[in-house]
Amino acid sequence: MNASIIDGKALSEKIKQGLAPTIEAIKAKGITPSLTVVLVGEDPASQVYVRNKHNTFIKMGLDSEVVSLPSDISQAELLAKIHQLNEDPKVNGILVQLPLPDHLDSQLIIQHIKAEKDVDGFHRLNAGALMTGEPQLIPCTPYGIMKMLEDQGVTLRGAEAVIVGASNIVGKPIALLLQKAGATVTICNSKTKDLAAHTKRADVLVVATGRPMMISGDMIKPGAVVIDVGINRLDNGKLVGDVNFDEASQVAAAITPVPGGVGPMTITMLLVNTIQATMQQHGLEELS
């Protein structure tokens, strides 16, 4: 293997250690940053994600609550719960775990979270702030990716960045962040013709499609930095990304593993966002 491994676990621990003095300073003012996660239904993957988030917050000395609601809850009932959390001064951050059951309108639910408590960064006001180059609360996975690239010393100004996947959660916001950093950005999707022609130009390749190992080694530019956002479980139980790791690691200069790459960083940046939201709500100095 030629590629160096971008260790998301190690970087997330480094960031969390750096946050400890800020957390202590906030708590010294009688304020404990607080996250409430709303979990609808009993999706096993969602339960694992929520448990990991909850445990991270508790270990860092923050308040965390999981509100578990039945899968058949009505939209009106869920909106009422969101409104209650919006008005609770003890709740600094609100996260609705996605995906929601089909009968619920995810976009409508998200837009009812107060923008200043939207620690996922999905509210239109936060998305608009990102688009205009003045980000407030940044979506956690793209935020984590930028921290990984920064930690690796990747030069983004003038670089060719290619993103495969155009979701509101990853693809679109990471495109805006990379563009803000000076990269030339191409966004591809499932309808892109000759996908490999685009990916082979990328100095930085970000893949977030949810399709296991769709990017092969011959689709990657030698020396590229590859960020694999996907996490897929094969029939044999093995977890793999959207990139064929074995092939890609022979070509790329650096690559994120699955698991242990982007995933830990996503949770850590949720922690950062919740602390940032708490400071803003209490008029404290923002995180640098």
TrEMBL record:
EC number of this enzyme: 1.5.1.5, 3.5.4.9
Coiled-coil ranges from the UniProt annotation: none
Superkingdom, taxonomy of origin: Bacteria
Residues binding NADP(+): 165-167, 231
CDD domains attached to this UniProt entry: NAD_bind_m-THF_DH_Cyclohyd
Signal sequence bounds: none
UniProt keywords, alphabetically: Amino-acid biosynthesis, Histidine biosynthesis, Hydrolase, Methionine biosynthesis, Multifunctional enzyme, NADP, One-carbon metabolism, Oxidoreductase, Purine biosynthesis
Alphabetical list of InterPro entries matching this protein: Aminoacid_DH-like_N_sf (IPR046346), NAD(P)-bd_dom_sf (IPR036291), THF_DH/CycHdrlase (IPR000672), THF_DH/CycHdrlase_cat_dom (IPR020630), THF_DH/CycHdrlase_CS (IPR020867), THF_DH/CycHdrlase_NAD-bd_dom (IPR020631)
Alphabetized HAMAP family for the sequence: THF_DHG_CYH
Matching NCBIfam families: PRK10792.1, PRK14186.1, PRK14189.1
The protein's name: Bifunctional protein FolD
